[in-house]
Write a structure and sequence with these properties.
The chain has 192 residues and is an alpha+beta fold. Helix content is 31%, strand content 31%. The protein has helices at 8-14, 23-34, 59-62, 72-86, 88-91, 116-126, 156-161; strands spanning 39-47, 50-58, 93-94, 100-109, 135-144, 152-154, 167-173, 178-183, 189-191. A six-stranded mixed sheet has the order 4-5-2-1-7-8. Strands 3-6-9 form a three-stranded antiparallel sheet. The longest helix has 15 residues, at 72-86. The two termini are 27 Å apart. Mean pLDDT is 81; it is low at 1-5, 8-33 and 114-129.
């Protein structure tokens, strides 16, 4: 299935290459730059009739916390967030003329990992001034009948569903172009 491999070469090609003298310091800088509360990333690739969207966000933006849920309210918030992520029609308004239909979806949630407690303690012991981070990744694969008519994605529904997300950094790759933009609640439409 091409779903998991469509964006991998593109993202690798877009990633800045850097050499680090101190590998630990470099890893720490990468994790800090990749995990900013209020900021999420969305990578989009259009290849033939397949449109793939890969969302990566701190759990804080989606759920409102980054610890393993233990209370009933926390568990309810996590379930509500997962339900919202599964409702792609409300989150991503694609150009209707492109006739895109969801064919696959995956949601990976660090908060649900059973081994998280052990990881948090060992990381906390190594770096006492750091607090644990949790991310949520969601991947959506659409088949578009007329992909040449796909010219925009409105993410107003995404910002409405997840109001703690202040900025969405978007990378879009199409057969004709590559675009990088920042979207926000006041500027939620990606057009190309």
């Amino acid at each position: 299935m091409r779903f998991s491999y469509l964006l991998a070469p593109i993202i690798f090609a877009l990633s800045p290459l850097s050499l680090a003298v101190d590998e630990h310091e470099h890893e720490h800088e990468q994790s800090l730059s990749a995990h900013l509360h209020g900021v999420a990333t969305l990578n989009i690739a259009l290849d033939d009739q397949q449109l793939e969207l890969q969302l990566n966000s701190p759990a804080m933006n989606i759920v409102g916390f980054e610890y393993k849920p233990s209370s009933a309210a926390d568990k309810h918030a996590l379930l509500a967030a997962e339900r919202a992520l599964k409702n792609e029609q409300d989150l991503f308004k694609l150009t209707p003329a492109a006739q895109c239909a969801l064919s696959a979806m995956t949601i990976d949630n660090d908060l649900a990992d059973q081994h998280q407690d052990d990881d948090q303690h060992s990381e906390h012991d190594k770096h006492p001034d750091e607090h644990p981070h949790a991310d949520i990744q969601a991947r959506y694969l659409f088949n578009c009948t007329t992909p040449d008519k796909l010219s925009s994605i409105n993410l107003a529904g995404f910002f409405s569903a997840f109001p703690q997300t202040e900025k969405l950094t978007v990378q879009l790759i199409t057969p004709d172009a590559q675009h990088g933009v920042e979207l926000s609640p006041s500027n939620p439409v990606l057009s190309w």
